[in-house]
User: Fold this.
Amino acid sequence: MGEWTVFVVDDDEGVRNGLSFLLRTAGYAVQTFSCATTFLDAFDAEQRGCLLLDIRMPQMTGLELQQELNRRRWRVPTIFITGHATVPSAIAALRAGAFDFIEKPLRDDALIESVARARQQEEIAHEENLLLAETEARAALLTPREREVLELVAVGESNKVIARRLGISFRTVELHRSHILEKMQARTISHLIRMAIILESSRSAGKK
Amino acid sequence: MAYFSRLSTAGEMASALAHEMNQPLTAIVAYARGCLRLLRAPTPEPNMLREGIDRIVEQGERAGEIINRLREFMRSGESQQTTVDVLEVIEAAAALAQVEATQNGVAITMRLEENLPSILVDRIQIEQVLLNLLRNATEALVAANCERREIIVEARRTGEDAIEIIVADSGPGIAADIEPRLFHPFVTTKDHGMGLGLSISRSIMEAHGGSLRLIPHTSGALFALTAPISDSEVREYG
Assistant:
């Protein structure tokens, strides 16, 4: 879904284009928006990138936009830019999930460095999401019984213990196990356990 | 920029100015840093460099424009100066400051001489200066958590051709280390202040041929401003 993009939202045309210019010289694809609303209209959760937001804008402020994105569950690293940083505004931004906070005018290469870190973080999160989606797709093929066996394998129980716990024969456990390895496309037992942990942690994160 | 004239105090005006100036400065720094990046490449792209430099010039001119408009606003051209009743202008500023004062338990007492001659000033600007002094006094009383919260405003004739207006408060006064720099820009004792209120206020008074000073006093802060008495027989306008 397109190139990794920095979305710049700032009501000041000069600032917006200046930031865009600087980011383009650093090799980033950039899209600019003059207000929160035009950005939300163009918003597509599939797009990958990070957000550069002026905290002080008429109508919808940067903080309000961040809250709206949280509500829509669009997880994109957000870097706030502010003309007059105060501790309360920084705290409010970080509480709302800001990735970073940069003051105007820009000091050193603060912006480029911050965007580079945001990209790193976004890429790690993206990889994790891909891995999770793939693992979930494989786990969907398991029967309820196989899922039970997998949970016990993941906590390190031996086939003997699993057989006793589930009231089935040792031979049946072995059979389930080979089906699980096959369906999960696990190369080794430790690979299988890693996948089981990924599934478990996403389930517990979902419950929160 | 048009909204400058609607802002109620010099302090707010200064804050708005800082925001206005920060925008072109941010753009200029961003373009300049971009150009430096381009120059680091083995073969810099001339078209993009030209675009960057064009924009630096454009944003620099924009900043100059802001300063020019501010100057025009501050210069208080003679055409804007009118004959103003001293008591009226003091009462107007006090009325604006009264809300904040009342909320904070601050009493404003007036000791105004009767039958004062009119002064020749830009009414809105003098109101801004007075309001700024009254708000500073109120904030100082609140910040120091003073028990007695009183502001005294006095007006009297001083010499042949000027009126003196005093704004004194019962607060802790101006700290000795701040005092020599009190009227310098960006000197402030407030958490949320730009430190431009008094420096702009003094510029406004001087542009009127008057003055704004801190008067040494045993307790609290005492500011005195002078403004020229209107003398339409001598001065001819238009």
